TrEMBL record:
The lineage of its organism: Bacteria, Bacillati, Actinomycetota, Actinomycetes, Kitasatosporales. Pfam families: Ribonuclease. Keywords: Hydrolase, Nuclease, Signal. This is Guanine-specific ribonuclease N1 and T1. It comes from the Bacteria. The keyword Hydrolase applies.
Length: 153
């Protein structure tokens, strides 16, 4: 891995900057097509892969998607921690996610890292996680890696 001796907070910060630049570039400098109307006036995207707008980065195509604002409060808090580079409440946070379920696109070991999303009422870490990719991707699972949604930031 090329980031072997670089502090995790710096790698995460650079990943977040890269993601922002990529989103702006793919969105045509902020010009976006209007999204689909959703009952109740919500701007949340459907999780159906066919509802992914053209402006979504290639890594999210064909996946269920979720906007940050539609994530549970605890997941948004974890994203903020990742952006800041920690500190993380669980010792497993920031460790390599092996993608053994092969739900996410195949990458070399060390590409993905996982972070615990606290679940109220659970005695252990629960089933919810944020997984980050080395290219600035963010994924959310609420069923312990069985399914993932691409997080649109």
């Amino acid at each position: 891995m090329i980031f072997r001796n670089v502090p995790r907070w710096l790698v995460c910060s650079l990943g977040a900057v890269f993601l922002c630049v990529a989103l702006v570039a793919t969105a045509g400098c902020g010009a976006q097509k209007p999204g689909p109307a959703v009952a109740g006036g919500s701007t949340e995207l459907s999780t159906a892969p066919s509802a992914v707008p053209d402006a979504v980065a290639d890594w999210a195509r064909g996946m269920a998607v979720v906007r940050v604002g539609a994530l549970p409060r605890e997941a948004r808090d974890v994203l903020a921690l990742v952006d800041r580079g920690g500190p993380y409440p669980y010792r497993q946070d920031g460790t390599v996610f092996g993608n053994f379920e092969k739900v996410l696109p195949r990458q070399k070991r060390g590409y993905y890292h996982e972070f615990t999303v606290r679940t109220r009422g659970e005695r252990d870490r629960g089933a919810r996680r944020i997984v980050t990719g080395g290219g600035g991707e963010f994924y959310y699972t609420d069923d312990h890696y069985q399914t993932f949604k691409a997080v649109l930031r």
